[in-house]
Amino acid sequence: MTTLSNLIKPGSTIGIIGGGQLGRMLAFSAKEKGYRIAVLDPTADCPTAQVADHHVQAAYDDVNALKKLAEMSDVLTYEFENVDAEAIKEVNKQVAIAIPQGTDLLLNTQNRLSEKDFLKKAGIPLAAYAKIINGDDLKEAVETIGYPCVLKTIQGGYDGKGQVVLKSASDLTEAERLLENGTCVLEEWVSFEKELSIMVARNASGDTVTLPVSENIHTNNILLKSIVPARASDETLKEARTIAETIAEEMALVGVLGVELFLTKTGDLYANELAPRPHNSGHYSIEACSHSQFDLHIKAVCGYPLPEVELLKPAVMVNILGEHLEAALKLNETQPYWHVHDYGKTGVKEGRKMGHVTILTDDRQETLKAIDETKIWD
Ligand code: AMP
Predict the structure, then answer these.
(1) Is 219's C-beta closer than 6 angstroms to any atom of ligand 1?
(2) CA proximity to 272, closest of 235, 209, 223
(3) Residue 184 pLDDT exceeds 90
(4) CA angle, residues 71, 63, 8, in degrees to nearest 5
(5) Does residue 29 have a pLDDT over 70?
(6) Engineering a disulfide at 188: which of 33, 127, 154, 307 sits with its beta carbon 3.0 to 4.6 angstroms away?
(7) In the 3-class helix/strand/coil scheme, how is the chain assigned residue by residue?
(8) pLDDT, tens only, 216-248
(9) Quick one: pLDDT at residue 96?
(10) Can you tell me the mean pLDDT for 105-119?
(11) Taking 80 as the threshold, does the pLDDT of residue 74 lie above it?
(12) Per-residue model confidence (pLDDT) at position 2
């Protein structure tokens, strides 16, 4: 039973650490509910600052800036995992303000090795992995794990950055070069049929809800499309939900967490990565669900009970990267039913996430074809 104590009520200010598109979409949801928004981000006119009431323009690990954000906020949340957990702890100590997501979640997820150790302990299926500090560790682990495998830096990597795929011994030299950046983790290569993800939300009272499972298509390691619901068996979808709920419970999650999964041809699911925040593959929920991942996150960090989420209509989401932006914004002229989101970023760069399009559909295959026919994502 939910106890409605320590509610952060509408009219209060939510301080968001990180001012990208996730912060912006959190702000939209929060504003609709009557909250004010303060944001900490080093970039002037960043996506969240454009829609926030206050902007503290400073680095994420600037303790004085974090304190300033805390002083103007009733609750703090973070929108990405590369936040300095130590700096947040410092603020937690000195300012009487809650960061409901906590710092353990951050520490567990910003380090690939602690994330895997946590998942293993929680009984979540994972590809084989090993901690690699030097070339000898690497050679030894390759013997056990075998080729192909992938070496990843344990900190700071995203969208495939800081990774070397090893197909044979000739890739060892390049992999050893990656070790110069610090400790790494070697993972067995999963020959997956599909990549799936699921968003789970939990509040401090233990209400736990999941969103429908997305099927994700990546190009150059960057998410390109999400198809919802994922084209997978009921059993797989159910297992994905169980995995997400178990992780949320074991982590004592407060807020939203994204769980990335590999689905093999034999129907096995393996956890790949966690994101301690709303996730790109959950953006479809803004239009396609009775409550979006952003609504759930705001409700959870403000202490409110969480609703079961209903999929109102299947959807396909496609990301707008820098190279797609100009043509994708023109879709407003020809596709009145498509929801074209523009994050308002000023620096257009190839590979940079600038927006996304969500298309509600009764026929996912037809919609994928319609996306292809635009030739924008070729
Ligand atoms: P990550 O940053 O770990 O999510 O990796 C980026 C992408 O690389 C994933 O979405 C997969 O497409 C691919 N990938 C990463 N690790 C593996 C693995 N162990 N087996 C197969 N594919 C992988």
Answers:
(1) no
(2) 223
(3) yes
(4) 35
(5) yes
(6) 127
(7) CCCCCCCCCCCCEEEEECCCHHHHHHHHHHHHCCCEEEEECCCCCCCCHHHCCEEECCCCCCHHHHHHHHHCCCEEEECCCCCCHHHHHHHHHHCCCCCCCCCHHHHHHCEHHHHHHHHHHCCCCECCEEEECCHHHHHHHHHHHCCCEEEEECECCCCCCCEEEECCHHHHHHHHHHHHHCCEEEEECCCEEEEEEEEEEECCCCCEEECCCEEEEEECCEEEEEEECCCCCHHHHHHHHHHHHHHHHHCCCCEEEEEEEEEECCCCEEEEEEECCCCHHHCCHHHHECCCHHHHHHHHHCCCCCCCCCECCCEEEEEEEHHHHHHHHCHHHHCCCCEEEECCCCCCCCCCEEEEEEEECCCHHHHHHHHHHCCCCC
(8) 999 988 999 999 999 999 999 999 999 999 999
(9) 60
(10) 92
(11) yes
(12) 44
Report the chain's mean pLDDT, rounded to a whole number.
Answer: 94
Domain ranges (residues) in the chain: 13-99, 128-188, 192-373
- Tell me how far the alpha carbon of residue 187 lies from the centroid of ligand 1, in angstroms: 9
Within a 10 A sphere around the Cβ of 168, how many other Cβ atoms? Answer: 9
Dist. CA 276–CA 21, nearest whole Å: 15
Fold topology of 128-188: Dna Ligase; domain 1 (3.30.1490)
Distance 191 CA to ligand 1 centre (A): 10
Give the confidence band of 161 by pLDDT, cuts at 50, 70, 90: confident
Taking the CA of residue 149 as reference, the ligand 1 atom at the shortest distance is 19
Whole-model pTM?
0.95
Right CATH number for 192-373 from 3.55.40.10, 3.40.50.720, 3.30.470.20, 2.40.40.20? 3.30.470.20
**pLDDT for 80-97, tens place per residue?**
887 888 888 888 776 666
Tokens of 203: 């509040």
CATH of the domain spanning 13-99: 3.40.50.20
Mean pLDDT calculated for residue range 259-265: 97
Whether 218 is in the pocket of ligand 1, judged by its Cβ within 6 Å, is yes
**pLDDT for the residue 159:** 60
> Which single residue is written with the structure tokens 């609504």?
295
Pocket flag, ligand 1, residue 127 (CB < 6 Å) = yes
